[in-house]
Design a protein that fits this description.
By secondary structure, the protein is α/β, with parallel strands linked by helices. The chain is built from 7 helices and 7 strands. It has a 4-stranded parallel sheet, sandwiched between helices. A 3-stranded parallel sheet has the order 2-1-3.
Length: about 210
């Protein structure tokens, strides 16, 4: 399966290469992801609701302009921008739909963490749109800047500080609310790398 993916924000060449290397490492046999930057006119971060909406608009346009020869299209974002809008028009798949959907199918009540409030609000809205609110315990905000995405240590320290609250909320697992962050194994409450899980689900169904 060949997947064409688009970033939700404009990233520089080093960050694009880091994200591509991450996909290369995570892809199961038989699955490949070609990641493309969304372009310099897109937001550099998703820090406000307006930036989230603008990102979604540009992701939809970029996926509609994808070249032929791919089996699926993927927004490189746990917010699944454009997935609902393009469903039925293009073979689009969503990281949140696949990863949280697996938790729902396996009966685990699941929470999430997100970098900021704008992302947390959109993630919660997407869960409600998918009809999974009864299996979702909510989102905890990490209060991190966009540069933390490439700083796995800083990101995961913030996640660690939120786990006790998430467990008290009733979560049996936690979706890491960013597609581009390394998620190390840790004891206790499982933290799900949504990108890794989504790719495994896609490969299993290919």
């Amino acid at each position: 399966m060949r997947i064409h993916a688009v970033t939700p924000i404009h990233v520089d060449t080093d960050e694009l290469a880091r994200r591509q290397e991450r996909y290369d490492a995570l892809c199961p046999p038989g699955l490949t992801v070609a990641l493309h930057d969304i372009g310099p006119d897109a937001p550099r971060a998703l820090d406000t609701a307006d930036e989230v909406r603008e990102s979604e608009r540009r992701v939809v346009a970029a996926l509609r302009a994808a070249p032929p020869g791919y089996d699926a299209l993927l927004p490189d974002c746990v917010l699944d921008p454009g997935v609902g809008q393009l469903q039925g028009e293009l073979p689009v798949v969503g990281i949140l739909r696949l990863s949280l959907g697996w938790q729902v199918l396996t009966g685990r009540r699941t929470g999430a963490v997100a970098r900021n409030k704008a992302i947390a609000d959109e993630l919660a809205a997407k869960v409600a749109e998918y009809g999974w609110g009864g299996s979702f315990t909510g989102v905890r905000v990490l209060d991190l800047d966009v540069h933390a995405i490439a700083d796995a240590q800083r990101w995961n320290e913030a996640v660690g500080g939120a786990l006790a609250t998430l467990e008290a909320d009733g979560a049996a697992a936690v979706i890491n609310g960013c597609s581009a962050v390394e998620v190390p194994a840790r004891p206790g409450l499982p933290v799900v790398d949504p990108t890794a899980l989504a790719l495994r689900v896609l490969a299993a169904g290919a």
